[in-house]
Design brief:
By secondary structure, this protein is mainly β. It has no helices and 7 strands. The chain has a 3-stranded antiparallel beta sheet with strand order 5-7-6, with no helix packed on it. Strands 1-4 form a two-stranded parallel sheet. The protein has a two-stranded antiparallel sheet with strand order 2-3. It is globular, with a radius of gyration of 14 Å.
């Protein structure tokens, strides 16, 4: 499955959040691919950033509790403090 989508960022507490048109609840076991073109703010300082996928619980009361976010089985990707699956790094020049 491959999906292309160009979301707009929402900044909060130094974190840029993008909503992508992907529903991981429909993923079956195996490998999945989706792509998104992310436009960065013009005033974003150069530096190294982490790229992560946040899959929160859909219930509004549990959404911000990282214990209820979907966690991938991959090793060394889980950020328990935020409930993120860290996919890699991005260098902005």
């Amino acid at each position: 499955m491959s999906t292309n989508y160009e979301p707009s960022p929402q900044a909060q507490d130094g974190i840029l959040r993008y909503t992508v048109d992907v529903d991981p609840r429909r993923w079956q076991p195996g490998e999945h691919t989706f792509s998104a073109t992310l436009s960065l703010p013009a005033d974003l300082p150069p530096g190294d950033y982490r790229l992560a996928l946040w899959l929160p619980d859909p219930a509004e009361t549990l959404r911000d509790d990282p214990r209820y976010a979907i966690r991938f089985a991959n090793e060394n990707t889980w950020d328990a403090a935020h409930g993120w699956n860290v996919l890699g790094g991005v260098h902005v020049t």
